[in-house]
Amino acid sequence: MVEKKAKVVDKWKMKSWYSIVAPESFESREIGQLVSSDEANLLNRKIKIGLGDLLGSFSQSTAYTSLYFRVSEVKGKTAHTKFIGHELVPGYVRTLARRRRSVMNQVDDAVTKDGVPIRIKSICISGLKVSEGVRADVRKGISEGVKAHVKATDFSALVQEIVFGKFAAKIYAGVKKIGPIKRVEIRKSQVKETFA
Asked: I want to staple 184 with a disulfide (CB 3.0 to 4.6 A). Which of 39, 121, 149, 172 is the partner?
């Protein structure tokens, strides 16, 4: 008796390509493509892309920034995302902290004007070594500034300010009088997510 061979199904042929699109605050630009056999598998996927890659132009400000998105819904062959955070490249952050300077790190949780909870991690570099008292005052000033600016700003506008450096400039303007502050950077932001 001859056994019949089972028909082999090529699983790759059953999969489809989906276009990954950034949120409207980033002009709904295509940020990549994913392949999947089921659109449900795409939901909640985390996507990382460099700011320079997203904008299609590279400069010092865009080369060191990574953006994080999460797929929130799939319509047809398009997967729409939401912004969930950003991060400066760790190597770039290390170059800021040179010898004979003080480095002050601060982590603050705040809620935007439209109710989006976000965690902001900032780094402040002084032009020369400063006392612990000045460091404490600077951290307090950064924390107050971050919470006030976040509370007064809508999420989409806040994202633009954080990613393109305007938010850090506002915080710097608030603390530069406290001591010999050279610069303030927002090294990381994270939207506090809830999953069903």
From this structure: 172
